[in-house]
TrEMBL record, chains A, B:
Annotated keywords: DNA-binding
InterPro entries for the chain: HTH_MarR-typ, MarR/SlyA-like, WH-like_DNA-bd_sf, WH_DNA-bd_sf
Protein name, entry field: DNA-binding MarR family transcriptional regulator
SUPFAM superfamilies the UniProt entry points to: Winged helix' DNA-binding domain
Xref: SMART domains: HTH_MARR
Organism: Tamaricihabitans halophyticus
Length: 151, 151
DNA sequence: TACGTATGATTCGTGATACGAACTAGGAGG
DNA sequence: CCTCCTAGTTCGTATCACGAATCATACGTA
């Protein structure tokens, strides 16, 4: 119906069973599912896990998190509220601009953040386990190219 | 900290700014975001849109939908309830096995399903717009390889 | 300094999402 | 008939996501 049926261009790549777009949707679903599974193992939700993973490199202002997570300010407030209530993060007021609050991990949050971050990376890389290193590097480069310029 | 820092292996692929796993997470986020944007244009939620897209090829039993969407039975019941309330789908009892209900699109649901399906594919393919056809085909093949065997 | 405006974040109300446990209805085998 | 299994629903709870309204702070300008 559309232009989505891919044409086999190389001998090695056989006949693709779906086009790029459908593949992307499926892939996104798989990633989301992996996130959900790992989160459940640590008694977290996917959103909470993603928040923790955003913080492993240090405190981040609410506004930045809002942009990174594609969340409205009010949605982020709620998410941080719930995670703070569990004692995994804390808010620190910025001294330079007292309007902004930086979110940082507590000790337990740091532990959970590192664990879930590591597990996620392991599981996702394992998805590409049987792809040769060369192809995998190119896959990474192509993905980087797609997400570049999307925030 | 982990083995995620990619090593530049070819002259053409420059220095990647992140590894495969992080790229996958970002990509999943972008796809999710596209889904959300399109859904909003049609006054739907992402989940409702995904449900409609699942039905464009004909009626599907609840149990199958549950598996395809990675949803518990009760969650799916709620989702179908809300979409049915909007008049986009209807439930039909299966004559052979009167326990199963097949979900199918109404006329309006069909229209919305087709429209959102088309828009989603267009927008996602546009994401790879500046990638040469050769690379794009390989990207599709590699993605297919990753999601193969994940249900 | 005082005023108006812009920005960062929270509060509140609403609807959607997702889950598990308990339940109902229908099939399948003895 | 009785039991077991499966397909879906109901119900209660927690989370998620949004927009409008609000509060506090910063900043420019008169």
């Amino acid at each position: 119906m559309t232009h989505t049926e891919a044409v086999p261009t190389e001998a090695g790549t056989a006949e693709p069973e779906f086009g790029l777009a459908v593949g992307l949707v499926r892939l996104a679903g798989v990633v989301q599912h992996v996130f959900g599974e790992i989160s459940r193992e640590y008694d977290l939700t996917s959103q909470q896990t993603q928040l923790l993973c955003m913080l492993v490199n240090g405190p981040v202002p609410m506004a930045t998190l809002s942009r990174l997570l594609h969340l409205e300010k009010s949605s982020l407030t709620g998410l941080v509220d719930r995670v703070e209530r569990r004692g995994l993060v804390r808010r620190q007021r910025c001294a330079q601009d007292r309007r902004v609050w930086r979110v940082s991990l507590t000790d337990e949050g740091e532990r959970l953040g590192n664990d879930t971050h590591r597990d996620t990376i392991d599981r996702l890389e394992k998805l590409a386990g049987d792809i040769p290193a060369n192809d995998r590097d190119q896959l990474t480069a192509l993905i980087a190219r797609m997400v570049r310029g999307t925030g």
